[in-house]
Write a structure and sequence with these properties.
The chain contains 23 helices and 31 strands. It starts with a strand and ends with a strand.
Length: 719
């Protein structure tokens, strides 16, 4: 299918052919009929992408701080690689569209039906693309008498409606709308429909004429003398009951003007991005209230609501972004005596194949425009089925398929694999077509796809990297093994014992092997530590301290159905590392969690007991400062002390002396060595680079951490 893609590094925009996305549980697959270019928002995104690195840094000082913190903690090289990889990600454009449902995901049977016309919302979801996969809470049915061209305004109208709801006007209130671009026009209409008296203010006389035709009582060209007097005359000297700021400018003049026009204790709502230096004295004397409206409404930026379909209690949240979207398309119905007229806002229509010309209009030529609609062909041509080469790979080859290409895969795993000799990059599969296409071009894969079977059923592929979200690691590993492929799966291997058993069952009948992305045991400093510890017989004492940092509450890692939480998702790394350092089987697990208020289980200690009498304590916390070193490991055995600090220094103390080794090229956490060992094992026909029984042991021990926390006792493995 075709999709509009922009480079985050250069800002270059293009219409590209990418693999078709696939419907997932809780989503619908929609064939797009019309999508709206939001000139203001999308121009801002495009202009930002075109800026130099210095320009981007000036625009986003918050991100600069994060980069500097990472550089201090992890080193310049690791930080540079991460930043450049992020800048290389493709950006899908568009967030307001309409189309027809062509497939329904699990759990939505009966809620939607094939052929149903829907409006869809969401940046990165309702894209300028022939096909889009959209979660249930960002889709609304379109009335029969509303055209696709009109319905594609749904998201923009929802932004305006959310701003109006936050303003909460009463019948007869006088409300000034500063800036009557697309969102301002929609807000002015919604205010008029709610019974407010609207004053439209803008620099463009043509926009003001359109606002007047659509219900504004008074219009005023910004800069023309006499505006305060005109407002006083209209309001009987009281001033505006509310001001909605929909202007897009770096200047703070809209706030200054709003303070001048507003009555005492009036409400101000911002739906546009403007300067935010407000005149304190004017705001204080009138006791003005200001709110920045949250895009489409309640639910926006909440991954549980948008991505997982969670509902809010209607008694507490009556109008969510879903409700706003439904109400906006309902108000467009021609059957209503007073309706939201979006057809009058359409100034240009372009065929989707000419999308680049449409963007040239709004970003480069900047000709007068309002609503710019992209029109799509009624049918999307089906993707051509792959024809596989039936020849088996030559002996000694590693022919790679990849499933999943998230940030970690793109920034770490794939670049390291690309540097290794003897690997053929055959096929990459992701859920989003633009991601697969971009990764295929960036790393030289022969094929990009959204169909997992294109990897599993290709006889030439003998190795698979699984780098998806945690919940399907076990299933995909088992499917790859059943297909005779060797697998390297990113941690964790599984989220529960049933999933572990699923992998074991598949491995028992497979000609391939599996390994897990526990890279730390391959790091040069860890390899040296293991070698030094092996000289000492008897029990060892290990302390592994992890300053993990806080994870955003909305992160998918915390979602039970996707990530399983940080214990399964990251603490497993250190369970495996302790297993490698102790070089003895784990026989029991005891865990205790700190009682903290930030939610989730991010602060805990884990004590591992090993068969040879060794003990390991893992201290994992989110309460530290991210500028402090993330990981420090201390090992005590036979009069020797080994300390590794953040993979930057290794100190060995014995016989009264301390020797310190420093990393020469920044952190090396073992990713390249891990991947090289996997590729070599595939080429040699096995065995796996790490004993698979040991990896199963680590998985079961990590799951036992959760069991220990739930049951408040020590868990003996094998009980």
């Amino acid at each position: 299918m075709k999709q509009v893609i922009q480079s985050a590094r250069t800002g270059k925009l293009s219409l590209k052919q990418v693999p078709e996305p696939k419907v997932r549980g809780g989503t619908v697959l929609v064939r797009t009929e019309a999508s709206l270019i939001s000139a203001g928002t999308e121009r801002m995104v495009i202009d930002f992408a075109k800026k130099s690195l210095a320009g981007k840094a000036k625009e986003r000082p918050d991100l600069v701080k994060k980069v500097l913190d990472k550089a201090r903690r992890d080193g310049l090289m690791a930080t540079f690689k991460t930043v450049m990889a992020r800048l290389d990600e493709p950006l899908p454009l568009g967030y307001s569209a309409a189309g027809r449902v062509v497939a329904i995901g699990k759990g939505l049977e009966g809620t939607f039906h094939i052929g149903q016309r829907v409006a869809m919302a969401g940046a990165g979801l309702a894209n300028h693309a022939e096909l889009n996969v959209v979660p249930r809470n960002l889709v609304a049915s379109i009335p029969d008498d509303v055209s696709d061209d009109e319905a594609c305004f749904g998201t923009l109208a929802s932004i305006a409606m959310s701003g109006v709801r936050n303003l909460a006007p009463h019948l007869g209130d006088v409300v000034a709308v500063l800036g009557v671009g697309l969102v301002g026009q929609l807000a002015a209409q919604l205010l008029a429909l709610s019974g407010a008296r609207v004053i439209a203010i803008d620099v463009d006389a043509q926009r003001l004429a359109l606002a007047k035709a659509n219900g504004a009582e008074l219009t005023w060209v910004l800069g023309q003398a006499g505006l305060p007097e005109a407002v006083a005359a209209l309001t009987g000297g009281v001033g505006c009951d509310g001001v909605l700021i929909a202007a897009a400018t770096d200047s703070s003049e809209p706030l200054e003007l709003a303070a001048e026009l507003a009555r005492d204790r009036a409400a101000l709502v911002m739906v546009g991005k403007t300067g935010t230096e407000f005149p304190y004295a004017a705001f204080m004397k009138k006791e003005l209230r200001i709110m920045v409206s949250r895009s489409y409404g309640p639910g926006r930026y909440d991954e549980d609501f948008e991505g997982r379909g969670v509902k809010y209690p209607v008694g507490w949240v009556r109008w969510t972004e879903s409700d706003n979207l439904r109400e906006c398309v309902r108000l467009m119905s021609s059957s209503l005596r007073q309706r939201l007229d979006v057809a009058s806002l359409i100034t240009h229509r372009f065929a989707f194949d000419n999308a680049e010309d449409a963007y040239d209009l709004v970003t480069t030529r900047r000709e007068p425009s309002m609503g710019v609609v992209l029109k799509y062909d009624s049918e999307t041509k089906p993707a051509v089925a792959p024809v596989f080469n039936q020849a088996h790979p030559a002996a000694g080859a590693c022919v790679l398929g990849v499933i999943g290409a998230g940030a970690f895969a793109r920034t770490v795993l794939l670049p390291e694999l690309k540097r290794l000799p003897g690997i053929t990059f055959q096929t990459i599969c992701t859920t989003r077509g633009q991601t697969a296409d971009h990764a295929a071009q960036a790393f030289g894969f022969g094929r990009a796809t959204t169909e997992i079977d294109d990897v599993l059923k290709d006889p030439a592929i003998n190795a698979v990297l699984v780098a998806t979200r945690h919940s399907n690691h076990a299933e995909l590993t088992a499917r790859c093994l059943a297909a005779g492929k060797s697998v390297i799966v990113e941690k964790p291997l599984a989220l529960d014992h049933a999933q572990v058993n699923q992998v074991i069952a598949a491995r028992e009948t497979s000609s391939g092997f599996f390994t897990v992305g526990f890279n730390r045991r391959f790091a040069p400093m860890i390899v040296e530590a293991v070698s030094l510890l092996a000289r000492h017989q008897g029990a060892k004492m290990l302390v592994l301290r992890v300053n993990a940092g806080a994870l955003p509450a909305e992160s998918w890692v915390n979602a039970a159905e996707e990530g399983g939480g940080r214990i399964l998702g990251e603490v497993c790394h250190f369970v495996d590392l302790a297993r490698a350092l102790a070089a003895s089987p784990i026989i029991s697990v005891q865990a205790d969690a700190a009682q903290v208020s930030h939610g989730g289980c991010d602060d805990l200690t884990v004590t591992l007991t090993f068969r040879d009498g060794s003990l390991a304590t893992i201290i994992y916390t989110a309460q530290g400062d991210s500028a402090f070193s993330k990981e420090r490991f201390e090992c005590f055995a036979g009069g020797t002390v080994i300390a590794i600090d953040n993979f930057l220094t290794l100190s060995i103390t014995e016989n009264g002396r301390t020797r310190v080794e420093k990393a020469r090229m920044g952190q090396d956490k073992g990713h390249r060595a891990e991947l090289a060992a996997f590729a070599a094992a595939v080429a040699a026909g096995g065995p796996a680079p790490v004993d698979e029984a040991e990896l199963v042991e680590t998985a079961r021990a990590t799951i036992a951490v959760l069991e220990s926390l739930r049951e408040g006792r020590r868990i003996v493995l094998g009980d």
